[in-house]
Amino acid sequence: MATKKKTDKTVSARPRIRVTDTSLRDAHQSLWATRMRTGDILPIIEALDRAGFYSLECWGGATFDVCLRFLRENPWERLRLIKSRCKTPLQMLLRGQNILGYRNYPDDVLRRFIELAALNGIEIFRIFDALNDTRNLELAVRTVKAVGAHAQGTISYTFSPVHTVEAYVKLARDLEALGADSICIKDMAGILSPAAAERLVAALTANIKIPVQLHAHMTSGMAVAAYLEGVRAGAGALDCAVAAMSGCASQPPVQTLQACLSDAGYETGLDLEAVHTVNEYFRKLKPLREPDHGALEFVDVNVLEHHIPGGMISNLRSQLQQQGALDRLDEVLAELPRVRADMGYPPLVTPTSQIVGVQAVLNVISGERYSMVPQETRDYVKGLYGRSPAPIAPKLVKQILGAEKPVTGRPADLLGTGLPAAARELDPKLTQNEEDLVTYCIFPEVALGYFKWRALPEGQRPPVPADQETEAAQAKRAAPVMPPPAAAAPDAATAHYAAVGRLVAQLFKQMGAALPEGTALPAVEPQAPAPEERQAEAPKAAPATQPLPAGDTINAPLNGTFYRTPGPGKPNFADEGAVVKTGQTVCVVEAMKLFNQIKAHKNCRVLKFVADDGTHVNKGQPLAVIAPV
Description:
Layout: E1 18-21, H1 23-32, H2 38-41, H3 45-50, E2 55-60, H4 63-71, H5 75-84, E3 90-94, H6 107-119, E4 122-127, H7 138-146, E5 150-156, H8 165-178, E6 182-187, H9 194-207, E7 212-216, H10 223-232, E8 237-240, H11 254-263, H12 272-289, H13 303-306, H14 310-322, H15 329-342, H16 352-366, H17 375-382, H18 394-401, H19 419-425, H20 434-442, H21 444-455, H22 465-478, H23 492-510, E9 552-555, E10 560-563, E11 579-580, E12 585-591, E13 594-599, E14 604-609, E15 616-617, E16 622-628
Parallel strand pairs: 1-2, 1-8, 2-3, 3-4, 4-5, 5-6, 6-7, 7-8
Antiparallel strand pairs: 9-16, 10-12, 10-15, 11-14, 12-13, 14-16
Helix pairs in contact: 1-14, 6-7, 6-20, 8-9, 9-10, 15-16, 20-21
């Protein structure tokens, strides 16, 4: 039972362990596919601020993308609102040269993003590179230092034939030489064992002078023990979440760690009454935000084989569900370690977790390994993300690049500048400030969608995608747990009225109010779905509104968003009337956050595109009509 007793405020001679709370970022990214709204955050900020955490991780990672794409919120405004209510240092997760996206960005974009983030309230930048390539970290560390913020260099932890304690110590010393103020061991998959934590932390503290922090996920169940061994070996800070936001693929519960550390002779300085308040708030919010495709098991020992990080587990289920292939999850988890080995054992953390994970999905659903390769996979093999920890399989390099040579230098050196071109392209009527320009540089298609939505009068804006998800989740949770008695199924109108009635009752209950006097709710329950119908079905292709021109078609191989251009500043893949050769890219379908190139299956002429740029398409839907040449 949670205690409300406050922590003793008297001076203690016991060693102090700093605690970072992740409830506002990584915890809900790992458990709720990042669906926490700003309106969910603001009511609890003051209690979080009272709790005595060393820092609050509240920004970065996937939160920026999801705010724009699914929540229709301005992530910069979220940061400002949190900062206005909070004195505890705010912390973000920065993907080095990848910033918050899935590719390297020009240096000028990275610099200005960091400057604006610091200006809006970020005081601690946790900076990592998915490949632990310090060339992708150098500029970010130096810019953070230049703006007077705390630069935390990060070790993306994994184990493989090439990941050793000696290699991690060298990385930490390199980060310290760049100017990092502290080092974080980022165990994104929850695979750091207690013994490994003790060995690695002991080696780091013996070889560097800056503090060491531990970040781990509970996926395999080892994180609490790993934390305790890491603290005993010299780690001075830990990442936790309140109990309601912990466990499964999230971080360890702060209440449990408080008890373990206190019994072991350490002090955290936390106000447990405030922690209890925060925990109760999120415990009540959880049913409205946790996705129906969330983790089914509290502990997933298979993570020791597939290494999928906590933040990707819920997203992977969601992505498979969107493709109508959730039943093939086990096949994807089996394929993923093979893809990772082919690609030189990259640590699985964004963006490499997304690249390797999506490639595994495509290998499974296409039926032929690497027959469908997103642009990001090609860029990775080409070296545009940096050095792979081990050499990429030569056969894969040849299959994807052909005679093209991989890049060996610092990838960002090939990019030039990004802000001037974006300023020329972006319609000034859609932008409100410089933050919009930087946002567009990082997520051009997603940002444009948000800007256009924001520009509409409130009454004309389409529904927010995440609100539609929430309504569906609430309707599902309102359904009876027990099957209805055997009887004739009610008609559609009666069933709909019953469902609405239950939702009304649920809402009044949540508000602590009684139903209005005289309100009668129907007793009829809708027919429970058969077990085989509960699995999400693949979306049906929208019917064509007009006959297609005569000729063959190029069809969408998976569900996603259709684009005729790969991004800002780049030419069309193919124009109407263009002649293309077999294997030449015609367009792209963005799915699972990656751009999947759609190629011609034979020499042909593109007669007409029959899907609109930037719209959703379903698997099998015609994208373009072609004719042989």
